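task queued by scheduler; priority normal; single chain, no ligands, no partner chains; default sampling; output format set to structure tokens
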Amino acid sequence: MKVIPAIDLMDGSVVRLSEGDFSTCKGYSTDPVAVAKIFEEGGLSALHVVDLDAARGRGSNIKVLERIASSTALEIDFGGGIRTADDAVRAFDAGASYVNVGSAAARNPDEVVRWNVKYPGRIILSADARNGSVSVSGWMEDTGKAIIPFIKYFFEHGIDRATVTDISKDGMLTGPSLDLYEAILDALPGLSLIASGGVSSACDLENLASKGLYGAIVGKAYYEGRITVDEMREAECLQNA
């Protein structure tokens, strides 16, 4: 299982939210490149970057992505505000290896499937759920779509990697939604599932790995000192052994 640290960006700074609530925003660093370098120097190879400004339609941190990508060799998946094919191309041009697509997938599923045909393997479905229903637009809008059928459509149309966030867990440090991830993998064996939200310790990473997940994103637990870069690297090495 790949362990993927996260950098959430707002106004060019590294921040974290709790349960997707922008009023809970807490800043951690004004130098996201330096944070990314800490992860790389600690032996991690991947990075999850979210543009919270673009997700709300209130700006862009694409230049920050460009700086991170040009300053590190990290494999970056980038999300937030990827609503058109041009947005995806801009992210790729700025150095992203993959884009996470959520709102566009909910509103224009066939179009997103076509993006994957044009950029095979580089589109990751972003499925963010609250009470089992998919939310979009920076988690502010409930689509009413059930999470597993939503993922299944894209999986059956060639998008075999999905980042799934239980919004109620995000930033809460209460442990990940193991039952949710287990249910998704039971319904969709073969899906490369990435867990996001709730990870609070190396033990949580071990529990996720035991469920057969492809990857796990670590955010607030790192920034709040609950888990170190060394522990993330060690967890990844042990789980890949």
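post-processing summary
- Residues 95 and 110 are 25 Å apart (CA to CA).
- The chain has one domain: 2-240.
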